[in-house]
Amino acid sequence: LTCAAEHLFNLKFAAKELSRNSKKCDKEEKAEKAKIKKAIQKGNMEVARIHAENAIRQKNQAINFLRMSARVDAVAARVQTAVTMGKVTKSMAGVVKSMDATLKSMNLEKISALMDKFEHQFETLDVQTQQMEDTMSSTTTLTTPQNQVDMLLQEMADEAGLDLNMELPQGQTGSVGTSVASAEQ
């Protein structure tokens, strides 16, 4: 049980670390989105596209870290159940030995007290099993849509209040973006 408890600690630690990495990627995605807006406002579509690709990459990394964290968390829950079951089994073995001795003496008060303890052990096991099932059912997978870069560019342009015209040749993008930005101001 000691080895399993140590593995349980390591699993929980790994799940937290993965969760932290997911949050870090979320922050980096937001920073990239801010850079997209600035690049669109300056009319530099090539730089905006690069930042959009970076933002989407960060988003996907965040999702992957979160997915892996959930999987590690599920494994930790299973190990927790195994550790708990081991403890309960050990307790039940002790209770059964006590019951044998008590039944031989036929002391009804002791039998009643032992049965209460036995039932309490099973209630504890039910609560922990339910917690594990809740954890397992809450792990879900996420999917991302196609054409994310173009959609993100359009979304950032809309938030910045700019008109994004992606059909223009690269040479004309700077002047149109600047004129739209100055018209907005």
Automatic annotation (TrEMBL):
Top-level taxon in the UniProt lineage: Eukaryota
GO BP terms: vacuolar transport
InterPro entries found in the cross-reference section: Snf7_fam
Gene3D superfamilies noted in UniProt: 6.10.140.1230
Membrane spanning stretches: none
Pfam families: Snf7
Family: Belongs to the SNF7 family.
Protein name: CHM1B protein
Name of the encoding gene: Chmp1b
